[in-house]
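Hi R.,

Here's the chain you asked about this morning:
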Amino acid sequence: MGALQRRGYRAAIWPLGGDPSEDVIAAYVNAAQRADVLIAEVGAWGNTLARDTEERKRRIRRCQERLALADRIGACCCVNVAGSRGENWLGPHPEDLTEETFDLVAQTIREIVDAVKPVRSFYTVETMPWMWPDSPYSYLRLLKAVDRPGFAAHLDPANMINTPARSCGSVSRNSAGTSRVVTPRTRALATN
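And here is the predicted structure, written out as tokens:
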């Protein structure tokens, strides 16, 4: 907590991996409360869409455990990514943005949330440009498809950037062939 306070931080991720004892969990939570540091998120990183059935079950169970921990300690959320149908749980695969995978993501999130029924925390998935949700629009669609109060949006806009044109506005070239990104903000600054 001292390092966080020296840097002026008031929120932190859950730093304890593995399965710490209840005493260790309580000591960290108490230290965070004394330092007035919010525990923002508990990571549950892993591929809940793995093709291997046993691996998929293990990852879903781990997300349920981490969501239960987040709820117990009062963290804002438990976070993961939706996962991938490929070998790399965080990497792109041609099937990741299909409707079939969207349905599987929604079903998997419902399974995680329904097992825990969180009341103090939320299960969330980070946006990524190559898997669901990949935009604010697909996130809204996913929120509606999951339809559970224990599922919420995790806004990390940097994860949606895969081209300046998609994320910032438009890209134009001047007569010298130099590119520039035009955003609503830069457009407003240029007219003032």
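One quick note: Residues 61 and 161 are 30 Å apart (CA to CA).

Cheers,
M.
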